Amino acid sequence: MKRPARPLYSILLLTLLAVTLTYRTVLRGGGGVLGSLECEATAKSVPRQVPLPAFNSSVLRYAEIDVSEERFKNETEQLLEGGLASHGRHRTYGTWRRFSHHDPNGRTFQGARETLRSPMFYRYWLDFRRNLGNWARNNRFQPDVMDDLIRLVKHPLDRHNGRPASDRRHASCAVVGNSGILLQSGHGKLIDSHEAVIRLNNARIQDFEHDVGSKTTISFVNSNILHFCARREACFCHPYGAAVPIVMYICQPAHFLDYTMCNSSHKAPLVVTDRRFDLLCTRIAKYYSLRRFADETGRPLEAWDAARDAANFHYSSGMQAVMLAVGICNRVSIFGFGKSELAKHHYHTNQKAELGLHHYEAEYDLYHDLAKHPLAIPFISDKFRFPPVVIYE
Ligand SMILES: *[C@@H]1O[C@H](CO)[C@@H](O)[C@H](O)[C@H]1NC(C)=O
Ligand SMILES: *[C@@H]1O[C@H](CO)[C@@H](O)[C@H](O)[C@H]1NC(C)=O
Ligand SMILES: *[C@@H]1O[C@H](CO)[C@@H](O)[C@H](O)[C@H]1NC(C)=O
User: What are the extents of the domains in the chain?
Assistant: First the structure.
């Protein structure tokens, strides 16, 4: 049913890309740099008069290529088309086995089949398809999605906190990364003094309050985290308390299963990041990685794919949380990002190595641009006003 539409879709995408590039070239004329790093300036007052640094167009073009796009489309289509009675049943069964994992009937094949036929399963199935479908519909690059983050993320949280949804940004936000550099930092009080505190991937705070603080306004996770803490009958995914909202990006479309199960029991909002925001972060992360790769190795951009395992390359949760804060806060403080020879990778675990799928050094380049030259960051609409960003190292 959807197949004949594909060439048309590709043409549309190409057109959109061309229009977007033209739009940027036309609009990027009068840029500016962030005047003051210190905290008093607000997002609206950032002047924009200084000309923009020139972007290297080959790096830009290469950063726009998303090699996981086809896999994403395939997976989404199969999940959406794999109805209970269709050819997708085996896959469906596999996907939903977790659903029946804690169901005594679900332990046998016969039992699992009963579960799949049950009305409750069917209701979940419909919700799952609706949630996945709504999300996948926004699978496009849109440079001004940054301006939409208030509506997409902050409004539901305002309502949850018993306030009318407000277009006002948070006065100040702390994004707390999980780097071992936080140990012995004594930053806990400073972190908690921000209006909103964003924490990452359910990192533990007990016993570390002096260095990492104890307040949590948003728990930002990737869907792998939810995948391991979601269960059919409840969602054990809120170490900061059931009232703390979760914002999550989706690593695999099938994780909407976990989302659907968790959302039905979670008391606070469980907000999935808009796909347009994900795609914006994807491009920015790849751009910074390409630049660093080219500078460090002197090799052609084409060599990046093999060197960084393009199919599995992904921005880190920390990076998207920082971009979220940049979109919904009037000033942003970044804690616990970065490394030192002596520091542990995570303050709360003994994990030795970094995951290869993230390019942390390239992401630090982005944070430094956020703090010093935000208009040197590509792909973001000119209309967007960057808040002051301070990095605590
Ligand atoms: C996507 O699906 C098509 C046909 O269903 C297949 O030929 C192609 O290899 C798949 N691509 C990926 C990346 O899975
Ligand atoms: C998530 O759960 C809340 C509360 O039960 C509900 O209002 C909301 O519609 C759900 N969201 C989705 C996308 O199903
Ligand atoms: C753009 O970057 C690539 C990769 O580093 C480099 O080979 C090329 O010379 C650069 N182009 C310009 C115009 O600077």
Answer: 31-64+141-392, 70-139
Which residue among 263, 266, 270, 274 is best mutated to probe the pocket of ligand 2, counting the most ligand atoms within 8 A of its Cβ? Answer: 263
Amino acid, single-letter form, for residue 93: Y
6-15, Cβ contacts within 8 angstroms, sequence gap of 24 or more: 13/140
* Residue 368 neighbours by CB distance under 10 Å: 13
Give the CATH class of 31-64+141-392: alpha beta
Instruction: Report whether 359 contacts 207 (CB < 8 A).
Output: no
Ligand nearest the Cα of residue 129 is 2
**CA pseudo-torsion sign 363, 369, 371, 375:** negative
- Helix, strand, or coil here: 220? strand
Contact residues for 153 (Cβ-Cβ < 8 A; gap 6+): 247, 271, 273, 324, 327, 328
- CB contact set of 127 (below 8 Å; sequence gap of 6+): 260, 264
Q: Is residue 80 a contact partner of residue 132, using CB atoms and an 8 Å limit?
A: yes
Residue ranges with strand state E in 341-386 = none
**β 332-335/173-176 pair status:** parallel
Q: What are phi and psi of 199, to 5 degrees?
A: -115, 160
Pair of tokens at residue 307: 């060197």
Is the CB of 69 within 6 Å of ligand 1?
Answer: no
Neighbours of 372 (CB within 10 A): 13
Distance CA 65, CA 14 (A): 12
- For 130-173, write each residue's pLDDT tens digit: 999 999 999 999 999 999 999 999 999 999 999 999 999 999 99
pLDDT digits (tens, 9 = 90+) for 299-354: 999 999 999 999 999 999 999 999 999 999 999 999 999 877 667 778 777 776 66
Query: How many CB atoms neighbour CB 233 within 10 A?
Result: 8
Tokens 């570390």 sit on residue? 208
Report if pTM > 0.70.
Answer: yes
Question: Is the C-beta atom of 294 inside 6 A of ligand 3?
Answer: yes
For atom 10 of ligand 3, which residue has the closest CA? 56
Q: Which of 362, 344, 313, 341 is nearest to 177 (CA)?
A: 344
Give the separation between CA 373 and CA 338, rounded to whole angstroms.
19
Structure tokens at 7: 């060439």
Q: What is the pLDDT of residues 64-106, one digit of tens each?
A: 999 989 999 999 998 888 754 444 444 455 555 555 544 444 4
**pLDDT score for 36:** 31
